[in-house]
Design brief:
Strand content: under 5%
Helix content: over 70%
Keywords: Membrane, Transmembrane, Transmembrane helix
Number of strands: 0
Number of helices: 10
Order of helices and strands: HHHHHHHHHH
Structural class: mainly alpha
Radius of gyration: 19 Å
Number of domains: 1
Protein name: ABC-2 type transport system permease protein
Length: about 250
């Protein structure tokens, strides 16, 4: 009976502590702000004469830009996911909570809030890009499918960053490893496009139905259904391995 009462109590405490942190999540504010500015700068770099192009061409360009914005959102969300854990560990918040909460439940409570933060980064990136596009595009090319895909990709990327942070532990190295490990496919795509289709970021993007041709990854052996499966495997794998490391290591 005691175990049955303690389990939901631990979960409730964990969710409450994470919710309180989310309410004053300064890393999220900073990363989301940077994501919005970066996306806006990319959108603003489009030549002004595009405003005179036919609507069909504008829609095509906006759809292509959606993939680029999703990539930037994913990279920034991965930084956020890693940053939020490693900074808590660095300042002793993780160790302090471990004295009053089981480690496992503390991690379970962290996962959904990390994903929500990543989704917020994705929304900030979208907002920055669309505001910059308004003078030339108005709302042309703004599709609910692409918006949802970018938000989901960013949420997944934040969980990737969390998994990397759990593994690397050290704050500064994790801030480099998380985005680089995710964006590696973009850097290697010109050389090994077929291989890169199977890496995390392309599977996240393709699972969301985004066009990868702008990244040099034409449709190959990985369709949307397979991409969704691979994305799930990548995510579950990195979080489970990171969680195993978290549960075994000394938090000091």
């Amino acid at each position: 009976m005691t175990d049955r009462i303690a389990l939901p109590t631990s979960l409730k405490r964990t969710v409450l502590s994470q919710a309180l942190c989310a309410a004053r999540d300064l890393p999220l504010v900073g990363v989301a702000g940077v994501a919005a500015v970066l996306s806006a700068s990319i959108a603003a770099s489009i030549p002004t004469d595009v405003a005179l192009a036919p609507d069909a061409e504008k829609v095509l360009l906006a759809e292509t830009l959606s993939t680029v914005i999703a990539v930037y959102a994913a990279v920034m969300a991965a930084i956020y996911g890693s940053f939020r854990y490693t900074i808590d560990r660095r300042v002793g918040v993780v160790a302090q909570r471990a004295t009053v909460q089981p480690r496992g439940w503390a991690l379970v409570g962290r996962i959904p809030f990390t994903a929500l933060g990543g989704a917020a980064v994705g929304m900030a990136a979208l907002l920055g890009a669309r505001l910059a596009l308004v003078p030339a595009f108005a709302l042309l090319g703004l599709h609910a499918r692409d918006v949802a895909a970018t938000i989901v990709v960013a949420a997944a990327a934040s969980l990737w960053g969390l998994g990397v942070g759990l593994l690397v532990q050290a704050h500064l190295p994790a801030l480099f490893v998380a985005p680089i490990s995710l964006s590696l496919a973009v850097m290697l795509a010109p050389v090994w496009p077929t291989f890169c289709e199977w890496l995390p970021l392309p599977t996240f993007l393709r699972a969301g139905g985004l066009d990868l041709s702008v990244l040099g990854l034409a449709d190959g052996g990985v369709d949307q259904s397979l991409a969704a499966l691979l994305a799930s495997v990548w995510l579950v794998g990195v979080v489970v391995v990171g969680a195993g490391s978290f549960l075994r290591r000394d938090l000091r």
